[in-house]
Specification:
By secondary structure, this protein is α+β, with helices and mostly antiparallel strands. The radius of gyration is 26 Å and the shape is globular. Helix 11 crosses helix 14. Strands 4, 5, 6, 7, 8 and 9 form a 6-stranded antiparallel sheet that branches. It has a 3-stranded antiparallel sheet with strand order 1-3-2, with no helix packed on it. It contains 19 helices and 9 strands. The chain has a domain of 97 residues: GOLD domain (Jelly Rolls, Sandwich), CATH 2.60.120.680. Strand 2 and strand 3 form a beta hairpin.
Length: 600
Amino acid sequence: MRIHPGAVLAPLGGALTAMLSGASPAWAHAFGARYDLPLPLEFYLIGAGGAVAFSFLIMVLSFDRRPAHPGGSRIDLQRFRGLHLLGRPAVTAILKVVSVGLFILVLATGFFGNQDPARNFAPTFIWIVWWVGFVYVAALVGNVWPVLNPWSGIMAGLERLCRWFGRRRPLCLGLPYPSWLGVSPTIVLFFLFAWFELIAETGKSPAVLATAALVYSGVTLAGMAAFGRDAWLRHGEAFTLAFDVFGRFAPIGRTDMPGQDGASRGWHLRPYGSDLIATTPCRLSLTAFVLVMLSTVTFDGFKETPLWGELLRSIALTPALHPGIRLIHDLGFELTVVLETIVLALFPVIFLSAYLGFAWLTGRASGRARPVTEIAGLFVYSLVPIAIAYHLAHYLSYLLIAGQLIIPLASDPFGYGWDLFGTAGYEVDIAVIGARFVWYAAVIAIVIGHVFAVGIAHFTALRAFDSVRAAVRSQYPLLVLMVGYTMVSLWILSQPIVGAPGSAALQARSDTISLAPFEFREMCLPLARGDRLDVTFRSDQKVEFDIHYHDGLTTRFPLRKVGVTTHSEAFVAEIERPYCLMWFNRNLTKAALTYRVAGP
């Protein structure tokens, strides 16, 4: 029997049909909308976990032989008319020129364009089109980053330019890359990238983004100059490794082909996930890198849960931590940024520790004495479909709504009022996707991702162990891990969509409320252009107050007051949009606040 990873989808039908039937939304409207589930959330969590467990049973009953080598099920795309052009050096050169041109455009717009993130090409292109969108392409279609990588293209261009001018010595210093480092540089660089994306308050600033891109370019080019282009791309360039890991799941892969320069590449078609079935264990540094990718996107989702606010409040109310908190304030650091940085750093440590623990249990369950790092390296690629599924589920609405900003920005990348392609007047349609669709897309993505993970782990175990019994027994701990993470990840994703808003939403137009440390309350009202709100409040402590709305990419603040105890405002809406009034207590003690809101 020839085993193909695509078969792991078989168990989904009945479970998903039952989970998705009978849905009707209470209310939903694009970004930030809530969706009332037709069944309790626990039913979805148990159903999703059950679907993953049931898929394991199907695997065990259906596949009891070592899987065929993935090369046997590949289809060479070069055989088809027209597709053979994809591997031609001329096509590759054109794509590299386009990629380098886009990179230069990002730098130019970041430094010299309008510094409003919503009117500048750089933030939308980097955070949405490139990082979010390209992960989808690499994982679901194929990884073309080796062709598009602008730093590789720049280095190759410099090398060719030197040859044209008669320089015989290569630009590379020829230093041997330290093998003991593994891919450790990529772990550090990817963590810094995640911090910049998820925590840094300046992460959306065009000029700051361009500066960060320039600094990263310097590090990358220096690494390639020191150790060689290929060596640094394999070990030190974070995005080359990230897209390579995601691309192993894709149905289209690259094939080495003999050519005049010895570096020609072709493309082949393969079953989804087949390149994730490990034959040799990954090194610990690569295992850690995969866990860092999974943990950082999970942290991003965790920040949107009520539990995150409770965690911040519990830290603020713990007397033993007050000296440290005061020290942070005295040093001039933003407390929330410090706390988020600490938790972000802890997430990969927790994920890696938990995974190594389950790897130890896997070895014990198999009855075969093998090092923990070897077991972890064999099965770490089975986590990649989970990372892809979480990325897809978490960023789907962000991509479909905020991603529309690239349409007007294509005509006016600098924010100067241009209209190069006639699309500058395009307005973002925030109703293109609703909370109901986001929720069920998340359920389907998470379940399918974990089913693939179970299948890849099963096929890997059949290759790694010398008996079917040992292979099956080895998967029991990993099954527990995957079922548990299925339920946890769905719970995290559900909180911004189906979580009860009562803890933060204010319903009464006037009231006296108590704000715990680091607690916020908000009231959101749909306003037409020209509508007026009369807002008055007073507090026994200084609080932060703002009126804001979402433009699809960022939160816009027509009004913001910091450190006030009383304020009166006659606010007039400039555009038709749901506006939110928010009070936030950044103090270490409770604040009593009385407010009154009058208007439409």
